[in-house]
Model the fold of this input.
Amino acid sequence: MHWIMLFIVSCCLFPVGDATAAHVGMACHHCHRQGGAASEPVVGCVGCHGGKEKVFSHAMTKRSGEKQFVERSYGRVDSRFWEKNCDSCHVTGCRDCHSDAGLAKPSVAACQRCHNGYFIGWDYSGRAPREDNMRYQRGIVVNGATFLKMLPDVHYLAGMTCGACHSMDSLAEGKKSSKVCRDCHMPALTVLEHQIPAHLQRLECYACHSAWGAQEYGTFFLRFRDRSVKKEFDLVSLNNVEYLRSAYLKKQEAPPLGLNGRGLVTPIRPQFISYYTDIMSARNNGPENVLLAAEWRAYFPHTIQRGSVTCEGCHDNPTRFLLEPESRRIYDLATDGLGLESFWSQKGQRVVNGSFMDAARYLRMAGKSTEYKRVYLQKWKKLLNHVEPSSPP
Amino acid sequence: MVTLFLLVLLAVAGCARQERREGCLACHSGIEQASRHHVGCVGCHGGDGVAYAKNTAHATMKGGGNPSEPTSWDTSCGGCHRYQLERVTSSVMTTNRGIIRNIQLTWEGEDTKQYATTGGTVFGPTGTTVALTPVAELDNLAGELYRKTCSRCHIGTANGDAYGATHGSGCAACHFPWNVEGVYVGKDRTMKGKAGHSASHVMNPLPDTQVCARCHNRSGRIAFSYLGLYDGNNGLVPTRGGEAGPVMTSGARSLTHITPDLHAAAGMECIDCHTSRDVMGDGYSSQNMYLQTEIRCEDCHGDPVNLPRYREITRENEEAVRESRSYKLPVTSGMLMIQTAGGHQYSNVFYRNGALWLQGKRSGKLHKIKVITGSSEHTVSGHGRLECYSCHSHTVVQCYGCHTTYDRKKQATDFITGEETAGSFNETEDYRMLYPFPLALNQRGKISPVTPGCQTFVSVAEADGSFSKREYVAKFKGAQQLRFAPFYSHNSSKKAIGCTECHGNPAFLGFGQHTIAGNSITGTLICEKSGSKPLDGFLTMKNGQVRAYSAIVREQSRPLNGGEVRRALSVNLCLVCHDTAKDPIYRKGLNYRALDNALHRKLLSLPGR
Done:
């Protein structure tokens, strides 16, 4: 009976004549030959797709980076934090990703079942996390989550899937991607910014071409030992009933910049500036809003556009390098007891896989050389020479 | 003469008699005297001061516990303060004409009538009579929205239960102190702990900022911005004592701290700038708040060309003399009082010994005023078109995407009629931010910050559960479009936004968060109902063509056009070298051809011709 069922299922999955299915015409036992528990997809798949099982030794299964972060942050106050809040997104079998009909290569939507929210992936198709209060939960819902509509990545708009740059082989080898920008794109020297050697030598392409980036300033996990108290906080529910999550501030503008492990200028973002409140403890005069980490990461927002910001978007923008002048400070973290001067001050914060740009280097960059001025003028003239003098109001 | 003497005698005798005979204190012993001028109970409250039984004593009281409320203010406060009452009754805080009209304009609710909280006849700004129709008769969605949401904050309606937004009705709305819970905590043991009452019975002739903040904390949220509070994402964190925090206010909203307005930081309160005519009206009914407001920054700080105007007090019965009686330093004849843009005298701002001074009306503190007239930063050619707060706003609160559902299946309170009726409103939102902020032309033809006002997407659920409207964008000025409103956020800073910061960032021109490629500027935060229009802006530029997608409300207002956008961005061609406003090139219109002369070519290592 068991084999009959499997046969029926497999015939449904791989109907004869489905030209797109790679497994058309194959007998059921090619995959399911070991039967029972042994028909678990990993065992079945790797019989033919040898080597791909290495993917289970790397980030998507092991998630060692995230685990280490939890160990040094929330794990200090709740030893089971990882399994309570982070364990739902890890790869255990081939079908986790290859779930679409016909065992096809994963669609963007398949990847986004895990790579959503604050994590890279959602941004690719123009989605930014909404605020956590229920007032902001509106609009289209995908896999139970709402999102703020943003401009999608040009590659997404061109119909490219994640796999175009993140091949199966690269993932199996533990690499982040199979392709980098310059594998496909040679920076055109007709572009003014590309004519500046320092830009091509010291910047990741996506330092300029990431049009926007989801940024969360102050990630709060609130722990409720008494669940009845949760209703006082009108926030999105989590899978784990013991916790609620919120944020001090979310932004989606062009991301701040720092240096990555290769020493190149790159987008950076908080990941995470983590606070923790045990509600019951806090109500008994215990600590609250405990700052457990103030970590940033160099990252690659998947929000690529042909264009970029203006020259002053970097060269006249100290806040973008976490060098905010005090006179421009908006958020008063000291009064709110958040243990940092400002989210845009490097003091008390660090980039875990790179570094902040130091003030001296920023000042050198912001000091306008004759060469800078020359190119700057060309840049603005290029924009302005074609602006129509009038348009309907 | 004899008649006059008798009248005075009767009045004095009347007051004295009340004091002798009233037995109210038998129950209300310990209650605070409203003020040294307001003696006794019956004079204001009515009722029977000699009756012992509560029901008898209270039976003929004016306005229940609040004689100043509109059904009785004519004979209570208005009995003595006629001048103030007649102004207040026609002011926008009573009529709410501005709020109602703006909702009508933006919710397709216009008809030929002029609505107010109650009907009646008032005098318009030109002195002609204006017939007002009660808003209870505005029988459409706009009327429903006003009555079921906005109307809680007009001074004719008390709000005794909304945490942080409590206030009495009538004169007491501003002149009696309420705490966040709306609970009496004074010394009258009968009233102590009772909800729906002011915190004490001590009248406040000069309302503090917290009084204003009880109402002026929605929509533009100016009181919050002024105080340095932000109800941004309502994240309810950081917690305070394990409760949602850090500061909670009405509507279960959490407030975080931001840099306060520089005037607030200096200890100034709302009434230190806003005159009694701003707040209580001048007797002529305005159609909008900005038309009732008589003050401008330039009144005290001067404009680039003209110094602040002052006028000497020459008579004892001048308004400023009377208004300043409660101040630490009452103004007197001979003082040179600064004038408002509306042509009246401030009662607390004066010229003395070569300097301008502002007296805190409640604190008595003297603040020396900086006058900017003639300073190089303020005489930049072309900046005469800017409102002061275009450069001096530290932040401008912006709420993007207000998605409002009207559900006919649910019941809600109509705060004008006091009845529960079918139809309830529910709001969700997209995004809120503080900086940067867009600029556009306001009703004065000046460039001003603008903020969404409003980006309403309307859904209407009918009684049978079907939707007759879904995410509908109302028509405004003849087209379906979202709207921005000229706005002074009341979060000003001494240090202005830098030249390059504004000119070099097209978000200030209304492009929103964006990316620039060649001569196209594309928004990155996109309206859900379109593929490319920005939600946080109203302009796009495609191949040099500037297009506007949203309206700027108010007459004569509009987004910057292509020519203006080009002019604003062209300044960058000079700013890269001439980077301070003091530079002499900014005293006259910029000559971009200078870039082609030999000097510039040499300096910039540009190839020769």
Remarks:
- The first strand of chain B starts at residue 115 and ends at 116.
- Chain B touches chain A through 80 residues (CB under 8 Å).
- The radius of gyration of chain B is 27 Å.
- Chain B has 22 helices and 25 strands.
